[in-house]
Amino acid sequence: DAGVTQSPTHLIKTRGQQVTLRCSPKSGHDTVSWYQQALGQGPQFIFQYYEEEERQRGNFPDRFSGHQFPNYSSELNVNALLLGDSALYLCASSPGTANSPLHFGNGTRLTVT
Amino acid sequence: QKEVEQDPGPLSVPEGAIVSLNCTYSNSAFQYFMWYRQYSRKGPELLMYTYSSGNKEDGRFTAQVDKSSKYISLFIRDSQPSDSATYLCAMRATQGGSEKLVFGKGMKLTVNP
């Protein structure tokens, strides 16, 4: 049973560029959340998708956007990249049942130069 | 004041030691408490998931929650070199099924053989 899978594993972009990160949730999970983890910090909540809609959003600018597809997979898009966007981007999935623990993927390491 | 405070360490102990990791929080709405373990270059892995105040034991791991003091702990008995990782506390308020997690900064633990 595959867990949460993310692609790519590493990415290097230049300031001002745009990036798309991808996530496939664990089998049986329909809710996907995205987190940003800067070096030496805990993950910070970006947003959550359920039934193809953004259900909740953290304190991130509109440059961060997302999408969820009918098969529950998800994308995170970041426009106009800044050096400060360099981080590990984590996708987490859970079943739609309220108060279920999250299962994380291994993340995409984004470096902005 | 940050919602969740965690001593970032690092912490270095000899093999076999008892390890105590702690977090405090300020938001009394938090109802669900988790401990995640994160190995280098990997995503967080769920270790313990608790709701009520008191202790929960799983093998060498014990999670303790004191809601009156807004304080949670993770104890690791008979620590092993394979326990060397970063440990993240996380918590969540019940918000209509939304599952945003708030994390501590993480404590880096090294268990020396």
List the helices and strands of chain B in order. EEEEEEEEEEE
Radius of gyration of chain B, in angstroms, nearest whole number: 14 Å
**% residues in beta strands of chain B:** over 45%
Structural class call of chain A reads mainly beta
- How many beta strands in the DSSP annotation of chain A? 11
* Biggest interface pair, counts: A-B, 27 and 31 residues
Give me some keywords for this one:
heterodimer, A: 113 residues, mainly beta, 7-stranded mixed β-sheet, 4-stranded antiparallel β-sheet, 11 strands, 0% helix, B: 113 residues, 6-stranded mixed β-sheet, 5-stranded antiparallel β-sheet, globular
Your description of this structure?
The complex is a heterodimer of chains A (113) and B (113). With 113 residues, chain A is mostly beta strands. In chain A, a hairpin with an 8-residue loop joins strand 9 (87-94) and strand 10. Chain A has strands at 5-7, 10-13, 19-24, 31-37, 44-50, 53-57, 64-68, 74-78, 87-94, 103-104, 108-112. Chain B is an all-beta fold and 113 residues long. The chains are: A mainly beta (113), B mainly beta (113). The interface between A and B is medium-sized, with 27 and 31 residues.
List the helices and strands and how they pair.
The complex is a heterodimer of chains A (113) and B (113).
Chain A: E1 5-7, E2 10-13, E3 19-24, E4 31-37, E5 44-50, E6 53-57, E7 64-68, E8 74-78, E9 87-94, E10 103-104, E11 108-112
Parallel strand pairs in A: 2-11
Antiparallel strand pairs in A: 1-3, 3-8, 4-5, 4-9, 5-6, 7-8, 9-10, 9-11
Chain B: E1 4-6, E2 11-14, E3 19-25, E4 30-38, E5 45-50, E6 54-58, E7 61-66, E8 71-76, E9 85-93, E10 102-103, E11 107-112
Produce a short descriptive summary.
Chain A has 113 residues and is mostly beta strands.
